[in-house]
């Protein structure tokens, strides 16, 4: 579904991705791990079209990725804290609407609000729709960010360290949600994580990176052992 092929990225003269190939199937949650600075975020930004590439190709379903095919969520959750949860989720649909730049929340079409409610329900937070986003816990806010991404109706969901700011229980919940979206909605989900154990519990496949190269790609159990033996992650997670 998502195919990244031969991705090369330079920052000035420095090459940080050296021809990375990664695929994520429909219905699959792929976890990407590797030491700080190995190029995980750069890869994710390149996949999302947010990072100029020296060369490489990003295909979704065999076609060049369209503007709305790929949704992204980040470690730092960019919700408008003073707006309601529902307004924040509606914003995910804006890219699909004509004249969206002139829309204020009061004017969100009813069908957008309905869909946003369905997305909130999907992440288990329909009952918080009318609360101010800033009143929710970190884990709940990240689930709102997932709902907002869903409202874009993407085929692919990318998440850059989505649980790094969350406590262990909230981390499990968000990862379980991402796996569920992959499995039940047939999305291709790629999450950059830094905890091998968390990845092993939730991901269908794990990719390990070092210095801008993919150095392992496999089933979670084997991959987690390899992450340690190749020193791609700290020994304590
Ligand atoms: N905007 C940038 N300009 C220059 N160098 C960058 C920039 N962003 C990241 N880098 C460098 O590129 C390398 C990969 O960074 P990054 O993709 O953020 O790694 P990771 O997410 O795996 O920690 C690092 O050496 C980092 O310092
Ligand atoms: Mg990063």
TrEMBL record:
Q: Which GO terms describe its molecular function?
A: ATP binding
Cite the PROSITE patterns for this sequence: ABC_TRANSPORTER_1, ABC_TRANSPORTER_2
Record flagged with keyword Nucleotide-binding: yes
Matching Pfam families: ABC_tran
Its keywords, alphabetically, are: ATP-binding, Nucleotide-binding, Transport
Q: Which InterPro entries match?
A: AAA+_ATPase, ABC_transporter-like_ATP-bd, ABC_transporter-like_CS, MetN_ABC_transporter-like, P-loop_NTPase
Transport listed as a keyword: yes
Report the PANTHER family cross-referenced here.
AMINO ACID IMPORT ATP-BINDING PROTEIN
Protein name per Swiss-Prot or TrEMBL: ATP-binding cassette domain-containing protein
């Amino acid at each position: 579904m998502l195919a990244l092929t031969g991705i090369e990225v330079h920052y000035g003269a420095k090459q940080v991705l050296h021809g990375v190939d990664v695929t994520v199937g429909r219905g699959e949650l792929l976890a990407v791990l590797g030491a700080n600075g190995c190029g995980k975020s750069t890869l994710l930004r390149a996949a999302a079209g947010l990072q100029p590439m020296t060369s490489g190709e990003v295909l979704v379903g065999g076609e060049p990725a369209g503007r709305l095919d790929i949704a992204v969520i980040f470690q730092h959750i960019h919700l408008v804290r003073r707006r309601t949860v529902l307004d924040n989720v509606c914003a995910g649909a804006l890219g699909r609407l004509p004249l969206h730049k002139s829309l204020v929340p009061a004017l969100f079409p009813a069908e957008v609000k309905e869909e946003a409610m369905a997305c909130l329900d999907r992440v288990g937070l329909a009952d918080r729709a009318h609360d101010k986003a800033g009143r929710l816990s970190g884990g709940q806010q990240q689930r709102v960010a997932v709902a907002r991404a869903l409202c874009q109706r993407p085929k692919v969901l990318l998440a850059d360290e989505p649980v790094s700011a969350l406590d262990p229980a909230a981390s499990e919940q968000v990862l379980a949600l991402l796996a569920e979206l992959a499995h039940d909605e047939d999305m291709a989900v790629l999450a950059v994580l830094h905890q091998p154990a968390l990845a092993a519990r939730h991901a269908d496949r794990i990719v390990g990176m070092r210095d801008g190269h993919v150095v392992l790609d496999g089933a979670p159990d084997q991959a987690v052992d390899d992450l340690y033996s190749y020193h791609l992650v700290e020994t304590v997670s």
